[in-house]
Amino acid sequence: MVAIENTQIVLASRPVADIDPKTTFRVQKESLSGELGPNEILVKVLYISLDPAMRGWMRDVRSYIRPVRIDEVMRSADVAQVIKSNNTNYKVGELVRATCGWQEYAVLKPSEDLVKIKAFPGVSPSTYLGVLGMTGLTAYFGLYEVGEIVKKGGPNCTVVVSGAAGATGMVAAQIAKHVFGCRVIGIAGSPDKCDYLVKELGLDAALNYKSKTFFKDLCAVTPKLIDIFFDNTGGDILDACLRRIAFRGRIIVCGAISTYNDATPKGPAYYSALITQRARMEGFIVFDYAKQYGKAIEDMSQWIKEGKLQSRETIVHGIESAPDALVKLFKGENTGKMLVKVAEEDTRSRL
Amino acid sequence: MVAIENTQIVLASRPVADIDPKTTFRVQKESLSGELGPNEILVKVLYISLDPAMRGWMRDVRSYIRPVRIDEVMRSADVAQVIKSNNTNYKVGELVRATCGWQEYAVLKPSEDLVKIKAFPGVSPSTYLGVLGMTGLTAYFGLYEVGEIVKKGGPNCTVVVSGAAGATGMVAAQIAKHVFGCRVIGIAGSPDKCDYLVKELGLDAALNYKSKTFFKDLCAVTPKLIDIFFDNTGGDILDACLRRIAFRGRIIVCGAISTYNDATPKGPAYYSALITQRARMEGFIVFDYAKQYGKAIEDMSQWIKEGKLQSRETIVHGIESAPDALVKLFKGENTGKMLVKVAEEDTRSRL
């Protein structure tokens, strides 16, 4: 095998507030010999997952995962294809989900993190970064393990999802609506997204948080208050939902994308509603439920087949577009899962 | 019986921010005939309980209890003595705990809220507003039902209590320390209070939140982070403890006295630590556990007898001092339970 030129994007500096694609990241090239150690495989990255959590990985603070180091390849979950293998469990042409990061090629060793993707008719490999990846699993475990949806669900249960046109929110909203039959209200940032949520995903209502009448609108569509709030955004939306939280309401603190770029975030001013309504705010990290991924993926695959769970992606092209695309994610320019398509799958050798 | 002149303090206006004793309340006199309807009793108020929750009762918002109306007698829990009775279950001279409000006398009907106080050697009747009243019950159920102390407790469990020299905090800290054997750190607002917490209540450490080195001090005394935070204050103290919360830590949102007078409270900026540490913030109201009060009072009476639970009170005298004393409560001028002593118990007829 001749040497491969590998384009990588590394973290060049830690942003204090907004990400600046030009100074936060740096593009570099390395030459890969293609020689592999025992059990190693060489993969070509097909899709890179862009996630709000990436902003946290750039911060040098105590968290659930170590920060990305300066000059290190930016961390990401990816779908990749095996192009050379020293491991009989991984054959050339097979697809895997792995943490390759923002680069075109990676040499990987077997780990918990390296997972073969099962063939699934009619579903793109990129789905393993979206509905059937960490994104979908996050929605699933948030609702099941933190939101107590099994106990609370049903038509008398009002569920509000923020970032509902985003990758995780979309899955959470559909599960609550089409699996548990709840009354589901999505919150998003444009009339188009709201239309999509109601007309295509079948939610009961959708609200544009940028509207001047947002809080009044929220009151109007939550006459029985909010039993479960799946929060991806934080900020003023969280405050509005705290003001509408029901007795023993559950706030699933999944993300706070509206605050991740703030040097000093504003906290939820109305959190004392937790006292008066005996409500709970609880955070979680999907990794804690790794032992239950199999069951969750089985459930969600079934829901896709039954048409209860739709997938949607916003795809940008080329490894070098990753920094700009990440900024767009924080601006809410995506609908559904935000992905970078790095290379085409080679289907000649697909098993 | 001749007519009785009853001094009452009513809510005159709803404070927007700080309570102004002169404009928020108004003193008035009424004449009580002393005539009783069927099953009614006439009581003389001995002690009035002052509680941070009163600030919420003055606010005209959706809450766990209806707001006090303008021109209505200010609501409070009190210990009172029966001075006339039309009810064979309540004899003249007996002591009761009831919601009489800020007045010298009250005519009461039997209700869940009217509870006879059991004789208990060596314990003042005022204890039924403190350790053995809602105050102590709040500490008990907060730890047991929200803080999961039965599951988490023990020497490897670090518990931090804010407002630790206040009525509820003091009880929570002592239960965590002397019943569950946790490492307990109290937070209070003066060196004297901190001395009291360590030297008299036996806590492992106490910190003055007004110190410039408070956060550094907190880090130093929580080398294994904070497993349970019993929060009575909110504000910057809550943020500091969020920054030190442990994996799957529990924040018992009991009160937020530091924010109750704010027109627009500042929320906890570091609440996203709930995500990274899979932590939980949960509120509660003691009334929800009414069916378990008996067991709790039995437990706490036993701990008093065993010397595990001490009581302390700050007492002001005379019904008309209630408004000023409430302001002092918000300034943190009390140590232990803040009470107004309205009248002496008549021990001649004590049963």
UniProtKB/TrEMBL annotation, chains A, B:
Q: Does the keyword Oxidoreductase apply?
A: yes
Q: Which organism is it from?
A: Linnemannia gamsii
The record places domain Enoyl reductase (ER) at 22-340
Q: Does the keyword Oxidoreductase apply?
A: yes
Q: Any idea what this protein is called?
A: Enoyl reductase (ER) domain-containing protein
Which GO terms fall under molecular function for this chain's record?
A: oxidoreductase activity, acting on the CH-CH group of donors, NAD or NADP as acceptor
State the Pfam families in the record: ADH_N_2, ADH_zinc_N
Q: Give the domain of life.
A: Eukaryota
UniProt cross-references to InterPro entries, sorted A to Z? ADH-like_C (IPR013149), ADH_N_2 (IPR041694), ER (IPR020843), GroES-like_sf (IPR011032), MDR_fam (IPR045010), NAD(P)-bd_dom_sf (IPR036291)
Q: Show the SMART domains listed in the entry.
A: PKS_ER
The protein's UniProt keywords, in alphabetical order, are: Oxidoreductase
